[in-house]
Design goal:
Helix content is 33%, strand content 20%. By secondary structure, the protein is α/β, with parallel strands linked by helices. The chain has a single domain, classed as Ribokinase (UDP-N-acetylmuramoyl-L-alanine:D-glutamate ligase), CATH 3.40.1190.20. Strand 8, helix 5 and strand 9 form a beta-alpha-beta unit. The longest helix has 20 residues. The protein starts with 6 loop residues before the first strand and ends in an 11-residue tail after the last strand.
């Protein structure tokens, strides 16, 4: 007998402590080595210390937007682990799905955000590397309409043996009639995770994932690694692989995800906004408890939505997680595909105005007010043949569904 779905979303996966030291440099710098000089004393501002990882950045953001949410993760019985649990208790309350284990170290991330330089991270996976099926609280999963699982490429036990452990978790989740959403992360290409066959792993994971929410760079690395590395080798100063990815390449990857078995593929494209591709109605009908409210609106869509103009730019730490939070919150509340993209971009655009991944969040109604007030998007042009502008959206050649009713 199916459990009562008294929760809307459970966020599971990678859990860590974020340490974000504030650089007090005035103006922008051209090179990281202008600041990080051996032997130099650097005067810093306050260090923000918060719960981090997608379990916190996405899960807590979803909860603060007003969605009934629980968290599932794993920390060590050490100072950082206690700090994470204390942070939860002080700011959000108790989450019984976050377990503390002896003999493990807690994951942490030190975010280096120098003005004018793309952020980079010093990261320790810690207890996330041993997280597996037995660490899941499937009672919480059974009670939830949707489970978001975040960052398995930074969780070694999950991707070993061609991803068998996460495959087992996703299968169990689907058996509980809980809709699945999967977020990825880009591994260090020189690490053990950088040497595994990710395309083979995703071949098993994607059919069990109703909603895929990776970044364009992550997806490009996992599906087209040689092309990714070729672009990366030819980058200029301050350039990223995303800067050199074409609309056609991103559209192709969206189609890949649908052909591999996903129902909805929302691809995060950083400052270029959000791309979405959806399957036909038959696949959408198999999504589980958190299904599409309007199948005709959601089926066979291909859209691109530029980012909103932010009030100020402080940092992009957690912006992808925030975008996912906006998207999934609107989704479980029955919004149209266009509306879900608006809330995703609204959350991501608010996120970059603060140093961490959470303090931007003033609730779903705040995002609604900003959107209804006529929030303008940044200028973006797509000159790929077949694409056309429709209001704030760009419509792709694979878009055959019904637009929203306003």
């Amino acid at each position: 007998m199916e459990k009562k779905k008294d929760l809307e979303i459970v966020a599971a996966g990678h859990t860590c402590l974020d340490l974000i030291p504030a650089f007090t440099i005035e103006g922008k710098v051209d090179k990281m080595t202008d600041v990080l000089v051996p032997g130099k004393m650097i005067n810093m501002g306050k260090c923000v210390v918060v719960g981090g990882g997608p379990v916190t950045n996405a899960g807590v953001s979803i909860r603060r937007l007003g969605v009934k949410t629980e968290l599932i993760g794993k920390v060590g019985n050490d100072d950082f682990g206690h700090q994470i649990l204390n942070w939860y208790e002080e700011h959000e309350g108790h989450f019984k799905g976050i377990i503390m284990v002896d003999g493990e170290s807690t994951s942490y991330t030190i975010a280096i955000c120098i003005p004018g330089i793309d952020r980079f991270y010093l990261h320790h996976c810690g207890a996330n590397d041993t997280f597996g099926y037995d660490d899941m609280d499937f009672d919480l999963v059974a009670r939830s309409k949707l489970m978001l699982f975040g960052y398995p490429p930074w969780m070694r036990k999950l991707y070993e043996n061609t991803g068998a452990e996460l495959t087992k978790i996703l299968k169990k989740t689907k058996e509980l009639n809980t809709t699945t959403a999967l977020d990825l992360s880009l591994p260090d290409v020189n690490s053990y995770a950088g040497q595994v066959d990710w395309k083979a792993i995703l071949t098993d994971w994607i059919p069990l994932s109703d909603i895929m929410v990776p970044s364009a760079e992550e997806l490009f690395y996992f599906l087209y690694k040689d092309k990714f590395l070729q672009k990366k080798a030819n980058l200029g100063p301050k350039e990223s692989v995303l800067d050199h990815m074409t609309v056609e390449e991103i559209s192709t990857m969206g189609g890949d995800l649908i052909r591999m078995g996903a129902a909805i593929a929302m691809v995060k494209c950083g400052s270029r906004g959000l791309y979405i591709r959806t399957a036909g109605q038959e696949r959408l009908k198999k999504m589980g408890s958190a299904g599409c409210a309007d199948l005709e609106n959601w089926a066979d869509r291909e859209l691109w939505f530029p980012v909103y103009k932010e009030e100020k730019f402080v940092g992009a730490l957690g912006s992808g997680d925030s975008a996912i939070a906006g998207f999934l919150s609107a989704f479980v509340w029955g919004h149209s595909v266009e509306s879900c993209l608006r809330y995703a971009n609204a959350a991501g655009s608010m996120n970059v105005t603060v140093p961490d991944g959470l303090t931007w969040n003033k609730g779903f109604e705040d995002l609604t007010r900003r959107i209804k007030a006529g929030w303008e998007t940044k200028d973006m042009h797509i000159d790929t043949p077949g694409w056309k502008k429709d209001g704030q959206f760009w419509v792709g050649t694979n878009n055959h569904g019904k637009s929203e009713k306003l």
